Amino acid sequence: MRTSGRLTAFALVCLLGALPACSESVDRGSGAAGARSGADARAGARKGTDPARTEAPGTVFRGGHPGAAGAGDPYFPKLGNGGYDVTHYALTLDYDPGNGRLEGTAEITAKATTDLSAFNLDLLGMEVLSATVDGAEARVRQDGQELTLKPRHHLRKGAAFRGVVRYAGTPESITHDHGWREGWLRTDNGAVAFGEPTGSMSWFPGNHHPSDKASYDITVTVPKGVQAISNGQLRAQHTSGNRTTFHWQQAEPMASHVATVAIGSYDVRTSRTRSGIPVVSAMDTTAGVDEDGAVLGRFPEIMEWAEGRFGPYPFASAGVIVDQAADVPYALETQTRPTIPAGIFHTTNVVHEMAHQWFGNSVTPRTWRDMWLNEGFATYAEWLWTEDHGGASAQDHFDRNHAKAADDDEWDFPPAEPPSASDISGQPVYVRGAMVIHKIRQALGDEGFRALVRGWTLRHRHGHASTKDFTSYVEAKAGRGLDAIWDSWLYGDGKPS
Fold first, then answer.
1. Are strands 127-133 and 214-223 parallel, antiparallel or unpaired?
2. In what order do the strands lie in the sheet with 266-272?
3. Is residue 347 within a helix (H) or strand (E), and if so which, with residue range?
4. CB 267 within 8 A of CB 282
5. What is the DSSP letter of 214?
6. CB 210 within 8 A of CB 365
7. 292 burial via Cβ count (<10 Å: 0-12, 13-18, 19+)
8. CA 320 centroid distance within chain
9. pLDDT value for 177
10. DSSP string of 463-474, one letter each residue
11. Which of 14, 56, 221, 264 has the most CB atoms at less than 10 Å from its CB?
């Protein structure tokens, strides 16, 4: 994610209300879940009503072992769920831009990781119409963001199962104290979905934590003449009467917070990179941006440069979405096709969001505490880009930031230990995180650093990694301990000397 100017904390005031600051840190770098407590993310959510045998809030299903109603993230403990692992989402959506109503069916293929009598999904503000598990009607309970399904028959550990949820309503956006929004955002001619870190639960039910990635089929029906852009590759498009359906497929694993749908009027431009990756970019026709193609025209160059720096591109398609979304002053690394508001569509932001395809999307953090691995690398990619293209060197960027006063917000907290959920996109996570990467480069030398980065993206390709995974990997490649870097730059309080 990248903001339009000076980076401020993307006040992730979880869901619809403020999330209190967390307390009690865990062993550093462990990324362990559950060490900090946070407010229940359900605060302020509209409770859906369910004509399909809805249980009263607080009902306990008797017999068996319900899955946990949360993945135990240190900042968002109720985000995600326990007891199962999703392998595939098939989302079928029908949207009316005129009244903002969304009707959806989510087919969720998963594997039970323990014996389950019931399991939870995250869904905020939408009404569940019906639910089945393996073809049989399931009992349903909705309580804030928690949607609980009780299958007719218990699910045994290791068993694959398929849950189907039909739902409808007007998706809610989540507005933070500073006025920024995420979730399903209506625009003048459609909508765009921004999911980081909690917004995806506003438009489909799922296991909404980065630790559970899956493949996706996203099928969207909209009025004829309106387009629907999503992740991955366009597999089919057809018009029937006054409605057009678009089927997009994301075959490689994807965390739900980087899933997206953009609905509106777009100029869709296609090309291929030198390595053969198909590029599909969608430019909002109402935005009046990049009309001469100066920014988008550099996309093949950016891709080729990034592959040289970070290793083979990890996905089967690429591109960008440029949308005139109101009240969204930040870009987001939606997988394969970053979403960048028209007002901040420029080369630096394209470089930043494309770097996230390696750092954050392919190599995904285990918990939100590991956010600096995403943003530190993406910010450092900006520094490398200017260095490799005749501008300021990475050392110049480092020195300029290090020269900032000790009371600058850049030094407010260690990048690997944001003090609360509202800090995980704060200035230290981005800039001081990039400074950590530069210190590693200094320790290994340019060639060693290039090999380290490419090796890291290949080792954890389409997987997950924590801060501890990264520091252990770096030390193994360096052949020595690097406590001086970790203690001062990654975990140290205040401005390092």
1. unpaired
2. 266-272, 278-284, 321-323, 339-341
3. helix 347-358
4. yes
5. E
6. yes
7. exposed
8. 15
9. 61
10. EEE-HHHHHHHH
11. 14
To the nearest 10°, the Cα dihedral for 57, 75, 231, 189? 70
Q: How far apart are CA 277 and CA 449, in angstroms?
A: 26
39 CB-side CA count, 13 A: 18
Sheet containing strand 139-143, edge to edge, reads 119-122, 146-150, 139-143
Q: How many C-beta neighbours within 10 Å does residue 146 have?
A: 21
Residue 178 carries which side chain, given as an amino acid letter?
A: H
pLDDT in tens, 84-121: 999 999 999 999 999 999 999 999 999 999 999 999 99
Distances (CA, A) of 231 to 19, 274, 329, 442, 465: 30, 21, 21, 37, 23
Q: What is the pLDDT of residues 415-457, one digit of tens each?
A: 999 999 989 999 999 999 999 999 999 999 999 999 999 999 9
SS3 content of the chain, % helix, strand, coil (to 5): 25, 30, 45
CA distance 252 to 84: 19
Chain centroid offset of residue 457 CA:
18
Does the CA dihedral 188-190-196-200 come out positive or negative? positive
424, HSE (Cβ side, Cα atoms, 13 Å): 24
**Residue 169 to residue 360: CA distance in whole angstroms:** 31
Q: Comparing C-alpha atoms, which of 414, 429, 427, 11 is closest to residue 197?
A: 11
Pull the structure tokens for residue 274: 């030198």
CB 280 within 8 A of CB 268: yes
- List Cα–Cα distances, 276 to 210, 270, 272, 300, 316, in angstroms: 29, 12, 6, 10, 9
Token reading at 359? 């750092």
Token representation of residue 443? 């320790």
The two three-digit tokens of residue 467, written as one number:
């801060």
d(CA 277, CA 266): 21
- DSSP character at residue 68: P
Rounded to whole angstroms, what are the CA distances from 70 to 59, 107, 171?
17, 20, 22
**Average pLDDT for 393-401:** 98
